[in-house]
Amino acid sequence: MTNATITGWGRYTPPTILSNDDLEHLTDTSDEWITTRTGIKERRISHIATSDMANIAGRRALAAAGLEPEDVDLVMLATCTGDTVIPSPAALLQAKLGAFNATAFDLNAACSGWLYGIDLATSMIRIGRHRRILLIGAERLSHYLDFSNRATAVLFGDGAGAVVLEATTDDEGVLATTTGADGSAAEILWVPGVGTSGDRYQNEDHSAYGVIMDGPEVFRRAVTTMGEAATRVVVEAGLDVDDVDLLIPHQANIRIIDATARRLKLRPEQVYVNIQAYGNTSAATIPIALSEAVEQGRVQPGSILVFAAFGAGLTWAAASVRWGARVEPIGTATVDVPPPDGDVFDLLRSNIEFFGKGVSE
Ligand code: UT7
Hints:
Order of helices and strands: EEHHEHEHEHEHEEEEHEHHHEEHH
Shape: globular
Bound molecules: oxa(dethia)-CoA
CATH architecture: 3-Layer(aba) Sandwich
Strand content: 15-25%
Distance between the termini: 62 Å
Largest sheet: 5 strands, mixed
Number of helices: 12
CATH superfamily: Thiolase/Chalcone synthase
CATH class: Alpha Beta
């Protein structure tokens, strides 16, 4: 049987940090509230486009797999914050990578996008449609935030993570996947006014351009659904929860992560958490976390990993994976990135001016 196994991993996290202390100058919040209610201490703000972040993460994943960009036959970009609508950011990315033997498309399932990609890539490899796939989750959520709105400004950040999936006949790789959606609850987490449903001639209403979320309702649904999805991919892989070595969950709230871990009866050392450093980077959280976990030796040859995510749509997904024999990258990519122009408040200047609240002392 043909399996889909992860052979490369990489990430790009922008250098500019927006700390909880910085946010206290932009909105009515506190480090104490954000830390205790979410687990987040800081997040990154990107000075480059989504497809540029994806390009860097993608090149790093390809180098780790020992591949050149021309070697992949599909580039899949999971994002809900692409730099363009036409053409797809995946097309821009394909050119930036120089992956000219690959077809390229975007996949938008919000925070579940990268895991939807794992599900799709695995199916495509299993049926022989593709053999080498570069799957990237990249998000520039800062573009859609109103930094004067404490309900959402404190939660999200920018970044990109990538993996290479290759066909193998070895007994490894993606074991089981599950995906789901419930569009009837779309309005508990959405960005109104963007897209063809918006009125392009009535852009005066500033509030129409930002993430709107019923936090407690999203929280309630995420806790139940992520735990169920994670359990399903363990059972469908013919495994027991005792077999799980590491859970790498979507990083939206430390309390959601803890609840998912409790559901699987995992100890803290069996759960990868980096929400404190990056906040919620939507489709990028899991591939960023995976690439860090491999580097830190938290993933070993043959490790059983479980991924689980939940997000806007509503969407959810999970996957179980048996890691292959290699945990060292074959190569590393050196990529030149232009430095940011100014500090974090400079990067957010147009946002702060647009929403009209300013920076307090
Ligand atoms: O990837 C999926 C996307 N999103 C999520 O998964 C998010 C899921 N939801 C959550 O993580 C949590 O619901 C939040 C972190 C968004 C909010 O936490 P909560 O414990 O559910 O708080 P809440 O919304 O019930 O608000 C409690 C209080 C309210 O004040 P009052 O009415 O009790 O006086 C809020 O106004 O906390 C207030 N509050 C804040 N205070 C300081 C809400 N946001 C903030 C803030 N700083 N940033």
